[in-house]
Amino acid sequence: MAEPNQAERRTQSQIAARLGQAGFALPGSLIERRALCGKANCACKADPPRLHGPYHQWTRKIDGKTLTVNLSDEQLRCYGPWLAEAQRLRSLLAELEALSLGIAGRGENWPSNST
Q1: How far is the C-alpha of 37 from the C-alpha of 51, rounded, in Å?
Q2: Does residue 64 belong to any structural domain of this protein?
Q3: 3-state DSSP call for residue 36?
Q4: Considering the domain boundaries, does residue 62 fall inside one?
Q5: 113 in any annotated domain
Q6: Predicted confidence (pLDDT) per residue in 18-76, tens digit
């Protein structure tokens, strides 16, 4: 078994401190969409097209099924930062997992790309 060195412990502490600053977080993804409509003479059919939107959609999985919610501009202002915070936390967790895999792999002779 490998023991983390001083630099690895310092990195883990830094990641943990940043995780400790967590705010509200919503799971899922934020998507911005633009769309064509069905009207024949609409500007969205011009060359170049001027699509309708943007429309903001929050997408997430619930019990293996994708749920999409259209967000108003007000909802986007309120919940957009929460979605961004969740992404930041996922990124920090991925850093911590990669660090841990490196340490464990060094001690166990596991391939470095183990997941």
Answers
A1: 8
A2: yes
A3: coil
A4: yes
A5: no
A6: 999 999 999 999 999 999 998 988 999 888 989 999 999 999 999 999 999 999 999 99
Q: Which tens digit of pLDDT belongs to each residue from 7-16? A: 999 999 999 9
Q: Residue 111: which pLDDT band, with cuts at 50, 70 and 90? A: confident
Cα 59–Cα 62–Cα 63 angle in degrees, nearest 5:
150
What is the three-class DSSP state of 83? helix
- For residue 103, is it within any domain? yes
* Helices within the chain (DSSP H only): 6-19, 73-108
* Location of structure tokens 């830094």: 14
Specify the number of domains making up the chain. 1
What H or E segment, with its residue span, contains residue 60? strand 52-62
Is this prediction's pTM over 0.85? no
